[in-house]
Structure formats: structure tokens, C-alpha cells
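Hi L.,

You mentioned the student needs an example of a multi-chain input paired with its predicted structure. This one should do, with 564 residues in total across all chains.
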Amino acid sequence: MARYFRLYGKKRGARRTGSRAVGNAAVLAFLALALVSGIALLAWMLWAFIIPEWRVNVVFRPNHCVVLKKRLAEQPVDGKPVYRPEMLIAYQVDHRAYETWAYDITGVFNPDRKAVEAILRRFTIGKKYACWIDPGNPERAVLARGYSWPVWIMLLLPISFITIGGGGLVYQFVYLGKSAERRAALTQRAGELDPFDQTHLAHQEYPSVPNYRTVMDSPGTTLAYRLPPVMSGAWALMGALAVTLATNAMSVLFVYLAVDGHRRGKPDWLLTAFTVPVILCGIATLLYFVRRLLVLGSAGPTIVEISDHPLFPGRRYRLYFSYAGQVRLRSVEIRLVCEERATFLQGTNSRTETRIVYEEKIDDRHDLRTESGSAFEMQCPLCIPPGAMHSFQSDHNEIAWRVVIHGDISGWPDFERAFPLVVCPALEPAT
Amino acid sequence: MSDPAIHIRLDTPHDVLRPGDILAGAFTLAGVTSDEIAAVELSVLWHTEGKGDEDLAVHLFKRFSADDGPPIDPKHPVRFSTQLPLSPLSYDGLLIKIRWCVRVRLFLRDGQEVVEERPLRLGRLPRPGGSGS
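Structure written out for the whole complex:
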């Protein structure tokens, strides 16, 4: 059944989401404003600061002058005075005498009076100083050269406006009024032309399957390929470190305030009482962080290799697992997991929901005995079930396969490490 | 005159195709005259449904524009044919569903758009958990 597209947005409850045309016009107006503002700001900064300073440093000719007078120029800005140093200098160009008030080319005023007075003190009336003269206008001279680096850093502001506004307008004009399919076709074509993106080579064979060639770049020592681990443990450790630093910084502050009160003979007993649990909290987080650090260090390195890659549903493979940690491994469980990950916008936040759609215990070993200094090694068969979905990756949706190693090590918390696999679609003969 | 309509017909008798199969068919337009048609877009595409934001990719995209080419004759069936890719397969997951379809979009000179889809399945994957689909 054919359907018309609505002139107005979809109705949600008692309200409409608004007109798409009006929304597009608002976006275009915003981007155009950003672009025009950026260009105007950049032009003003070039005219007022960048070009004059460049001319002073490159074009102006060196000369000598005598300081006749000096003064602290002052003017109000927002009700508060700002200052700049000014010297009346005398100099000659081509046997002609000139007198002018001068210091730098930008004429910028400074709210720091002491800093400006310090500049004035550097110049003595009647003494000779170096100056630089504008060859196109000899009445224009300066006593100070150089670049105002804050101005150059401020250039980031108009450049950001121009990039956002200009880039956004180009994007809008390329995609505005085009159907979702046409936009997708344009985007795909642009991606294929990117010389630095090699993922499309794998995508030409299996579109939307993640690039499996990255795994094949890492050969194994026992089986064909070594699987790269997912670095989830490192992020947890960084989080523990952040919490440890925060709680211990708070402990130090509370201890300082409490001890200082006692030292001055004005003890704050409520603060002192509150400091004790804060210190205990700091010690607990520190112990937790050290424990995690030791687990991460003692549990590795963990190596997983596979006999072939990418994998196909219904086929059998060999999996090799090696553990060479300092602490003895008591038991290990190896699981094959397939997980769906869906990313969606909720309000202004991007959220990701995950759901395990397949999980199988491949192997488990208990009461492991390894000689001191030697690694624990094992091999087991691995089969992607027939009829299983292949790995899939798009901008907001993903189906990911992985091997999960769960280890129990003596006297330490269990560790778990994941190793991604790429599963391609089962090869069916075409009709 | 009746409302503008699009009719899509596939050459295959069933909607389930294997990766690498040739997908062929034709579409016709009804309820419009040649002068009213600004452009027609034909796409063979997949898109996602479910919890995540929608992703869409086109496998075949053709645009017939009356401004850039000869006038589009609505009475004349437009044939299409393409070899389907090896992936992604149609999928009915718990959070993610992948749908394949042939989509024809008709742009009329008065600004109206009419769109018609013909769903199809690429591959025969069962639903996760073995409940089938």
C-alpha cells in the first residue's frame, strides 16, 4: 500500500513534532549565522591584530628615536579604567624629522596598571631607543615588536565557527531534500573513495561484517591467529584509580583541617569525628585499587589463538589458551558468547543496551597444576552453531561474537577476559 | 483520477532469497501522468529495526530524474536486476532486526512523495533462542 509523506511531523500523543521544513530552515539559519559570525570575527582579528603585527615584524624598517615625553594613557571600559603606555618619540626618515606618540601597533589597553607603569619605567626621557618605522607611512612608528600569542590562540574561535557553519552548510546542501536511500548511497560512495579506510575491502566481500583482516594480521605461535583482547579491565582500573585519588585527597584535606584546629587550640570535635570514616574510606579505596592492580598484573598475560579466521557457522575450529601469570590458576572456564548491542538516543544522551543471544560453555578445567615458572596451556574445539547469525556492525547496531575466559586464581578475585571473533555468513550455494 | 500508486513485482515466486542470488523484478506507476513525475528512485536496501536507532544501507540505488533524462513513462514497467550480497542476512534478534526490501520512491512535481516497499528475506536464519521466525 503506497503512503504519502506527512507535511507535518509525526503526531506523538497530543502534540506534533513540528514541521521538518521549518526545522531544516532553522538549522540552515543557525549554520549561516555561525559561518557569517566566524568570517566577521576572523576578518576583524586579521585587520586589528594579525596583519598589523605581521607588518611590524616583517615590513617595518628599524630606526632609532629619542623619547621626549611619556604618559600613562587611560580610558574607561565598563566603568573600570584600562591603561596603555605611550611615549612621544622623535626620529628622522630620509633627513626629515618626525614626532609621534608610540608604543606598540595594536594600541591595546591593559587593566593591570602596575604592569603598564613597569613598561613606562623602562624608558627614560632624553635617551635613545630602537624603533621601527612603517615604510609606507613614516609618521607611524612603534617601540615594541613581537606577536600577541593570546590573539593567535583566540583565532581558534572564528575558525571553529567557520568550520561548524561552513561544514554544516555543505553537509546540508549535499543531503537536504534527498531521500534516506539517496543519502545512504552518497555516504557509501564517499566511504569507498576514502584512501585511508581499508575496511571497505572486507565490506566488498561481506558487507556490514566487521573487518576481520585486523585479526589475521596477528599470527599465532601455536595456532594460525592470535586474538586481540578487549581492554575492559584497564578501564575498570582507571575508574578505581580516579575514585582512590578523590577519596584520599578528601582524607588529606579533612586531616589537615582537623589537625590544624587542634594545633591552634580550637579543636573541632565534629570535624575530627567525621575525619575518621573519611580516612577509612580512603584506605579502603586504596586497598581495592592495589588489589585490582595486582590482579591485572598477576593474571596476565593471557593468550588465545584460533586455528582459522574469520569463522563460519557450522564449522569446527581449535582454540588455544595460555596463562602465564605469577599467581597459580585454580580453574578456568571458556565460553562462546554472541551479544546484540543497540545504541539509541534517549533525550540528549546516547545509550547502549546489550543482550546476550547465545552463550555456550566450550570447556572448563579444575584443580589445575602447573610447574612453577611454566605457563598453563590447553586446547579445545570450538564450533559456531549452524544457523547462527554472523557478526554485524552498523552505526547504531552490532552483533558481536567473542570468546570469554573466566579464571579463578589462588587468593585473588576471579578475572574475566574477552576476545572478539568475526563470524561470516554460512556459505550457501546460490540458486 | 485515482491516487498515485506504485506496484513492485519480483520475478521470484517466493520472498526468501539466498546470498548471491539474482534479484530481478519490475515496478510500474499508476495514477500519475508523465508530466506530474519529477523523479523516481529505486533501491534494494536493508535497514535495522528494534531498540537501536535505525541504520540503512543501499545495495542498489537508481534514480530516474525527468530533469536530467527523458520523461518517465508511467505506463512502461521499469525492470531491475541485481546480484544480492553475501551479507547482512535478514535477522530477527532480541534487540536488532535486519530487514531487506525493494523500495521505490516517487517524487511528484507538486512536492508530494509516494513510497512503496516490497519486503524480502536474505538467507534463512532462525530466531535466536531457537524459537524460529
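You could point out the following to them. Chain B has one domain: 5-122. Residues 2 and 46 of chain B are 31 Å apart (CA to CA).

Best wishes,
N.
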